[in-house]
Amino acid sequence: MNDNNQHFFIFQKVNSESDSQAKKLSLCCNLSNNFHEKNRYRNVLPYDQNRIKLQSASSEHEAYINASPLELPFAKRNYILTQGPLPNTTGDFWQMIYEQNVSICIMLSKVMEKSFVKFVFKIFFG
What we know:
The protein has one domain (about 5-115): Protein tyrosine phosphatase superfamily (Protein-Tyrosine Phosphatase, Chain A, Alpha-Beta Complex). It is built from four helices and four strands, in the order H-H-H-E-E-H-E-E. Strand 3 and strand 4 (about 115) form a beta hairpin. The protein has about 130 residues and is α+β, with helices and mostly antiparallel strands. The longest helix has 22 residues, at about 5-25. This is protein-tyrosine-phosphatase. GO terms for molecular function: non-membrane spanning protein tyrosine phosphatase activity; protein kinase binding.
């Protein structure tokens, strides 16, 4: 089997597994509760079964943040995958950082997008 065929086979297997897993998961909470103003992109949503809820919130709407936990037991590491905060979700973002006891925050994103500044964070030391 040459490299192209092998890569295609792997891609098909991953694609099939992804479809199978996606059928078991839902986006009902996100879609039915109209959280569109809390999502940077309308097609990047956390699954109901695997999303972080803000603990200090008094309602489902306040508890919503577009973030999902990722546990890597073999690496003994836990991560949070989330969107860059919007102006109206910056407080939620920092609340999640506090509640989840995050010690390091790394952003993998461009600062500018379509000639607009996407994110501005002050850097704190100490």
